Amino acid sequence: MPVMERIQAEIDGHPLVLFMKGTPEFPMCGFSSRAVEALRSAGAESIYTINVLEEPEIRANLPRFSNWPTFPQLFIHGELIGGCDITLELLESGELQRIVVEAASQ
């Protein structure tokens, strides 16, 4: 499967997808670690993640797919939410909790 189709399939197949460096248990960068912490604080019990360090094709092509240059990248219901800063802003505003609850209920 071509990488762009695979990215789309991952996003379509899960209500919440975090493309990150490392894993939730062993994040390999501070931004990915903070994004996971924000999602957990918002009530996300299971976070579907893709470790871009183990997926070089996804790491190389996701920025073109999403028009977002950095990692992590959070997608909810197929829509790019953003990276670490936006995820933290949504957590502070209370919006992330609402989004996570909606994603979990579908």
UniProtKB/TrEMBL annotation:
Q: Sorted alphabetically, which keywords does the UniProt record give?
A: 2Fe-2S, Iron, Iron-sulfur, Metal-binding, Redox-active center
User: Which PANTHER family does this one have?
Assistant: GLUTAREDOXIN FAMILY MEMBER, MONOTHIOL GLUTAREDOXIN-S14, CHLOROPLASTIC
In this protein, which residues make up the domain named Glutaredoxin?
17-81
The name under which this protein is listed is Glutaredoxin
Molecular function terms in GO for this entry? 2 iron, 2 sulfur cluster binding; disulfide oxidoreductase activity; metal ion binding
Source organism phylogeny: Bacteria, Pseudomonadati, Pseudomonadota, Gammaproteobacteria, Lysobacterales
Pfam families the UniProt entry points to = Glutaredoxin
Q: Which family does it belong to?
A: Belongs to the glutaredoxin family. Monothiol subfamily.
Q: Where does [2Fe-2S] cluster bind?
A: C29
Source organism superkingdom: Bacteria
What gene is this protein translated from? grxD
Q: Where does glutathione bind?
A: K21, R59, F71, C84, D85
